[in-house]
Design a protein that fits this description.
Length: 513
């Protein structure tokens, strides 16, 4: 990148919505039936405006629906010249509606995106409910993101993201020191999400496997983490047949990065594995040209795992965490692997290749086998593995497969962080449909049946996880990359899913085993 944008600064102020020294203040409004009602932070502003806030908002067309942002000029009634009222929906959400904490997270992000160009914005969205602090801060900081480093000249209409986000502590009932601890935690995670988003958004010619491995190693070293990088020669010497097969068609050789966080005392060991296909053409089984440019995001799992390790290093949970990140570029060429090949994987299993576009599971199987050698108690793997995930669950809900109890913990963690996930089965018939006549297993259904396509990916990976290890496969094909318009705190392009869930699960294991 030639001009990376800086992350928003996150601070705490004892000021309130009326007297904060900021360019704009964010308050909340609800929709109760046919009427608007005041939400967090709004009462003080309403009083400063002589009780006319709801009337002004109504005249400007506000209806209080979740995520709607209406800006009001205060004309000197408050220190801030602008108040941004963000809709929070009904005070009492209907059953099945978006979780209130996620509603606030999205609202904060939408408000910050609507205030691009402002230098300093105050958040009055948190009232006396302390559980809202983290989601509001997360939404705001994650919403203050853009990726314009490759533009040689910014257009006159460009407005940079908000540079400083100020949590206004006046109405929270919590002290500045207590709130600062919360902001520090949010900043650690948000910085990691930003790192992952930047990697994923980087054009694939600038982030081929050797470059990605070098940047990952640098980020880990900067976080005082232990790093080991296996280059192509080391992979050959180690017998990493799956990673090597996928990388055969590219002049940019495959890599495997191992990153370790080891606290002074711990009871459990967590392994994180992330798919790092820096660009996926499909190889010999080449993809259609339409939308192939988005295949730069096929390393989203790897980006999130590496960046999550930097957040874990800052948060210092009492659990050992080791990341295993295989990286390759799947290209068609005279040296590329072929349908019909039989590949000897790391650990000795033999895989019959039927489709070179089912490459992610090949590199992941090697990385999982390597991770198992370190005897983790839990193994979490995440990848943009199948288009079947999008067909089954859409673009915002990740698919979960693996050990039942661990899946429940991950699903709950995803709900807390606003990264929804749904457990899926691994039926015996899907597994048996991948039996090979000439090798140990095929990559895909041996009869090319695409039914249960997402489940085929999970079933293949399950063959490389021995009994006794709690494990989970998180398919993020849709949620990891937003090809549509921004919404809430989610920008167009890389989202950073499921980084926050990974960190949440690690912290949960540190607390509860």
């Amino acid at each position: 990148m030639t001009r990376p944008t800086e992350a928003a600064v996150l601070t705490v102020s004892a000021a309130g919505a009326v007297d904060a020294e900021v360019d704009a203040v964010v308050i909340g409004v609800h929709r109760d039936g046919e009427q608007l009602s005041l939400g967090p932070g709004a009462a003080a502003v309403d009083a400063a405006l002589g009780g006319r806030l709801l009337d002004v908002l109504a005249r400007l067309g506000a209806n209080g629906v979740a995520g709607e942002v209406v800006k009001v000029a205060t004309l000197g009634a408050t220190t801030a010249p602008v108040v941004a009222a963000v809709g929070l929906g009904p005070v009492e959400p209907k059953p099945g509606a978006t979780d209130p904490h996620e509603n606030y997270r999205r609202a904060a992000g939408a408000a910050i995106r609507a205030l691009t160009g402002a230098e300093r914005v105050g958040l009055a969205l948190v009232d006396s409910d302390p559980s809202l602090t983290r989601p509001v801060l997360e939404g705001a900081v994650l919403g203050a993101y853009d990726f314009v480093g490759y533009k040689s000249e910014l257009p006159p209409s460009y407005r940079p993201p908000v540079r400083e986000i100020v949590l206004l502590a006046d109405a929270t009932g919590r002290g500045e020191i207590e709130l600062q601890g919360e902001t520090d935690r949010v900043k650690a995670v948000a910085d990691a999400v930003r790192t992952a988003r930047n990697w994923i958004n980087t054009p694939p010619n600038d982030l081929r496997p050797p470059a990605f491995a070098a940047q990952a190693a640098e980020a880990a070293a900067d976080a005082d983490l232990e790093v080991e990088v296996l280059d192509t020669d080391a992979l050959k010497a180690g017998g990493y047949g799956g990673i090597l097969a996928v990388g055969l068609g590219s002049e940019a050789g495959p890599q495997l990065v191992r990153i370790s966080y080891t606290p002074a005392a711990y009871d459990k060991h967590v392994a994180l594995v992330g798919k790092g296909i820096t660009f996926d053409t499909g190889g010999i089984s080449i993809k259609p040209a339409q939308n192939m440019q988005d295949m730069k995001s096929d390393m989203s799992g790897a980006a999130c795992v590496v960046a999550a390790m930097t957040a874990i290093a800052r948060l210092q949970p009492a659990v050992k965490v080791t990341a295993y990140v295989p990286m390759a570029e799947n290209m068609p060429s005279g040296s590329a692997y072929r349908p019909g090949d039989v590949v000897t994987m790391y650990g000795g299993k033999k895989v019959e290749v039927l489709n070179t576009d089912a490459e992610g599971r090949m590199i992941l199987a090697d990385a999982i086998t390597r991770a198992v050698e370190d005897e983790p108690d839990y193994l979490l793997e995440t990848s943009t593995l199948t288009g079947g995930q999008v067909v089954s669950l859409g673009e915002r809900i990740s698919g979960l497969m693996g050990s039942t109890e661990l899946l429940a913990r991950i699903k709950d963690a995803g709900a807390r962080t606003g990264e929804p996930m749904w457990p899926m089965p691994l039926p015996d018939e899907v597994r048996s449909g991948m039996d090979s006549a000439i090798a140990d297993v095929t990559q895909i259904n041996a009869g090319f049946d695409r039914a249960g396509h997402m489940l085929q990916g999970g079933s293949f990976l399950s063959r490389f996880v021995p009994d006794g290890i709690e494990w989970a496969h998180i398919d993020i094909a849709g949620p990891s990359y937003n090809t549509k318009t921004p919404h809430g705190y989610t920008p167009k392009g890389a989202t950073g899913v499921p980084l926050r869930t990974l960190v949440e699960v690690v912290e949960d294991i540190a607390r509860n085993g």
